[in-house]
């Protein structure tokens, strides 16, 4: 989240008692980090937000209480919870910008997420850009606009120049750019946008929906969202089991505008039927009659490539024109195969291919490594390629020279860390490789390189493997890869594990099924590799809430693992732990507890009391006991788990932080007082988790349902207030389903 000050908080919530502050805190949608305060101020503060309002909760210092009748201990819990529920519903009813309340508007922070640098050589298209700019800044203008035209006509450059002009013109407008070259690239960009917006705790599987919700809200301010190369109608309107149609995630806001670039006219009409800047509106320069421009059909990409060649080789325009005329027509036609466009006359040859072929032949003579890099890039997603993904030559200078040559010929647009290749250049290179029977060879070379390079799904590697994922997914979906996929099972498993760790369970499920099938065919149903694939597939079912499928598969894995590996093998115990978690989520508490205790005790004996897998079992058993109403046992066990994880894994490890946050939340939820129980005397080393409104549902209801089973550290009175809270409509209105406590890895539920 962007840094906030006290001036950003527009509503004060005054609490007389710490108990009232605890009740108010769990009603927040999101908690904020504390801000510094004067040493002369003894009061306690909690900061957060609810329904878009930034709220400061203030409380008297510890030990200072009121003296009126409302402070009678017996009624404090009733008063605190009822007041908090009323306050929450009141804030839900007040619009963020309500004119009747004199609130200072939250400061809008402008965001800039555009991966492409401005083209300093951009000329022309002034009328079109001015027209687009006018539509975007118009207060009641169209919310969706498309730029459509042939591939290479300059749609991306027009949109890019427009984005920079809007940025320079409007200091409050956020601009987001999403390349639509593949599902993986779209997912990666949405994750990057979410990070920029401060949505750090969003599940990657829900990131598009959460970004949409944010942009729909008033706090988003003004924004422009650009979808570049939105050419795939199926991606936008049909979708698949692993990826719903993108149209479902388009935000709608009076403050926002969406711009599409596409060569698909039908898609353009569906996305923005009445606001389309077509390629017919992009006029040629009628004053130019040079034979070269006529030959190149005035396509900007072809002109750029021709200019780059002439500059690089110091030849005249007439010499280059003769080279164009000498190109073998069969080669040009074959390389143009995937570039046929319904909007292009059949008797006009593709000038991009012609210019590409001339430049490519020159690069072949100058630098073989540049040709290798071009072939490598043809096998992966052409956008946002990390330079670290490329094969490393013997010297860094070789790499710099090769990439510089590709940039010089306008084949790539290399930045400091990443490389972009134009879609048409990408297609032309792929076609050239196919024409020369080299595409399959390069697919295998890239697969071998990526299998050695691709990282495991450890959380410390997340930033890098998220950059690699779009390119790995493009590779494994190639038909030429599928023909040899049995040679790259390690790569497929790494990709599936990373997808699972990122919450993209449906995509991971597809790859785990593939692994299970291949392993079963190669090694048999009881091979350890087959069992591992089955266990990972069961984990993806669990994470999607498909309990019955997860249970069925886990039971099979356990049965086979006991025979092949033994009852105490770590893999067998992991499958048993997963099954226990499935039982817990099905509400089969006794079975979950029995199996969870068995796994925990076995792991203590086999692996040791402080082994990370043993600590996972302790964590899971604590959640099972809490869900079953055994609060005191759950708190004791979670305190033990939190302490051990902080010592063994370190306080910054995700699982250490998860246990610490769970312990904090449970102690808050059940009002475990610091001075009345040894569990809370040591302050948890991790900062408090941002408490969502979902937590508020359990503050009262769990106390009521579990009090018979728990020896609380203070007496719970079954007063009229307690009985009243069971059915109070305000408390019922605040209830929401509780989320799953923690995620699940592909090895063990945690």
From TrEMBL:
<dbReference type="Pfam" id="PF13374">
    <property type="entry name" value="TPR_10"/>
</dbReference>
<protein>
    <submittedName>
        <fullName>Kinesin, putative</fullName>
    </submittedName>
</protein>
<dbReference type="GO" id="GO:0003824">
    <property type="term" value="F:catalytic activity"/>
</dbReference>
<dbReference type="InterPro" id="IPR027417">
    <property type="entry name" value="P-loop_NTPase"/>
</dbReference>
<feature type="domain" description="NB-ARC">
    <location>
        <begin position="129"/>
        <end position="270"/>
    </location>
</feature>
<dbReference type="InterPro" id="IPR011990">
    <property type="entry name" value="TPR-like_helical_dom_sf"/>
</dbReference>
<dbReference type="GO" id="GO:0043531">
    <property type="term" value="F:ADP binding"/>
</dbReference>
<dbReference type="Pfam" id="PF00931">
    <property type="entry name" value="NB-ARC"/>
</dbReference>
<dbReference type="InterPro" id="IPR053137">
    <property type="entry name" value="NLR-like"/>
</dbReference>
<dbReference type="InterPro" id="IPR002182">
    <property type="entry name" value="NB-ARC"/>
</dbReference>
<dbReference type="GO" id="GO:0009116">
    <property type="term" value="P:nucleoside metabolic process"/>
</dbReference>
<dbReference type="Pfam" id="PF13424">
    <property type="entry name" value="TPR_12"/>
</dbReference>
<dbReference type="InterPro" id="IPR035994">
    <property type="entry name" value="Nucleoside_phosphorylase_sf"/>
</dbReference>
């Amino acid at each position: 989240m962007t840094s906030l000050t006290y001036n950003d908080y527009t509503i004060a919530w005054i609490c007389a008692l710490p108990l009232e502050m605890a009740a108010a805190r769990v009603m927040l949608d999101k908690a904020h980090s504390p801000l510094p305060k004067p040493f002369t101020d003894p009061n306690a503060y909690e900061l957060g937000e609810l329904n878009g309002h930034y709220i400061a909760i203030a409380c008297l210092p510890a030990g200072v209480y009121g003296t009126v009748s409302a402070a009678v201990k017996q009624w404090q819990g009733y008063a605190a919870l009822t007041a908090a529920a009323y306050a929450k519903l009141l804030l839900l009813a007040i619009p963020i910008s309500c004119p009747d309340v004199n609130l200072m508007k939250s400061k809008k922070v402008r965001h800039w997420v555009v991966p492409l640098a401005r083209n300093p050589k951009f000329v022309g298209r002034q009328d079109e850009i001015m027209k687009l700019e006018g539509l975007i800044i118009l207060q009641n203008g169209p919310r969706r606009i498309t730029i459509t035209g042939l591939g290479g006509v300059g749609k991306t450059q027009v949109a890019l120049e427009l984005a920079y002009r809007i940025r320079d013109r409007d200091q409050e407008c956020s601009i987001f750019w999403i390349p639509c070259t593949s599902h993986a690239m779209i997912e990666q960009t949405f994750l990057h946008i979410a990070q920029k917006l401060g949505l750090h705790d969003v599940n990657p599987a829900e990131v598009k929906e959460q970004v949409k919700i944010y942009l729909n809200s008033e706090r988003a301010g003004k924004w422009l969202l650009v979808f570049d190369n939105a050419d795939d109608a199926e991606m936008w309107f049909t979708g698949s089991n692993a990826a719903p149609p993108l149209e479902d995630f388009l935000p709608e806001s009076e403050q926002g505008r969406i711009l599409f670039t596409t060569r698909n006219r039908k898609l353009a009409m569906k996305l923005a039927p009445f606001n389309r800047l077509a390629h017919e509106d992009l006029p040629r320069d009628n004053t130019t009659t040079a034979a070269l421009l006529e030959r190149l059909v005035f396509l900007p990409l072809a002109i750029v490539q021709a200019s780059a060649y002439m500059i690089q080789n110091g030849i005249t325009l007439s010499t280059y024109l003769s080279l164009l005329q000498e190109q073998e027509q069969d080669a040009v036609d074959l390389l143009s195969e995937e570039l046929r466009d319904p909007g292009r006359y059949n008797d006009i040859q593709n000038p991009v291919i012609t210019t590409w072929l001339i430049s490519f032949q020159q690069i072949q003579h100058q630098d073989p490594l540049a040709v290798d890099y071009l072939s490598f890039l043809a096998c992966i997603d052409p956008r946002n390629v990390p330079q670290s993904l490329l094969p490393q030559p013997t010297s860094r200078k070789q790499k710099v020279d090769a990439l510089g040559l590709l940039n010089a010929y306008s084949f790539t647009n290399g930045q400091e860390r990443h490389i972009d290749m134009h879609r048409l250049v990408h297609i032309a290179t792929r076609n050239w490789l196919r024409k020369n029977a080299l595409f399959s060879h390069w697919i295998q070379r890239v697969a071998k390189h990526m299998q050695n390079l691709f990282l495991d799904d450890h959380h410390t590697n997340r930033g890098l493997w998220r950059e690699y994922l779009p390119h790995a997914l493009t590779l494994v979906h190639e038909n030429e890869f599928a023909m040899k996929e049995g040679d790259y099972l390690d790569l497929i498993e790494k990709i599936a594990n990373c997808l699972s760790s990122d919450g993209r369970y449906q995509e991971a499920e597809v790859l785990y099924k593939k692994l299970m099938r291949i392993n079963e065919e190669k090694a048999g149903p009881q091979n350890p590799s087959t069992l591992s694939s089955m266990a990972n597939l069961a984990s993806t079912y669990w994470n999607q809430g498909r309990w019955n499928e997860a249970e069925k598969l886990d039971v099979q894995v356990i049965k086979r693992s006991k025979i092949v590996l033994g009852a105490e093998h770590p893999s067998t115990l992991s499958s048993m732990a997963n099954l226990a978690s499935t039982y817990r989520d099905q509400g089969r508490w006794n079975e979950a507890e029995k199996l969870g205790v068995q796994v925990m005790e076995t792991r203590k004996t086999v692996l040791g009391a402080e082994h990370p897998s043993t600590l996972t079992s302790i964590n899971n058993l604590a959640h099972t006991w809490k869900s079953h109403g055994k609060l005191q046992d759950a708190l004791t066990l979670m305190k033990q788990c939190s302490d051990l994880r902080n010592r063994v894994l370190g306080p910054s490890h995700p699982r250490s932080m998860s246990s610490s946050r769970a312990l904090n939340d449970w102690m808050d939820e059940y009002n475990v007082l610091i001075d009345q129980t040894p569990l809370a005397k040591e302050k948890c080393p991790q900062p408090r988790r941002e408490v969502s409104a979902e937590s508020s549902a359990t503050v009262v209801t769990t106390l009521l349902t579990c009090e018979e089973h728990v020896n609380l550290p203070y007496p719970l009175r079954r007063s009229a207030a307690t009985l009243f809270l069971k059915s109070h409509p305000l408390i019922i209105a605040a209830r929401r389903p509780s989320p799953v406590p923690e995620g699940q890895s592909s090895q063990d539920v945690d």
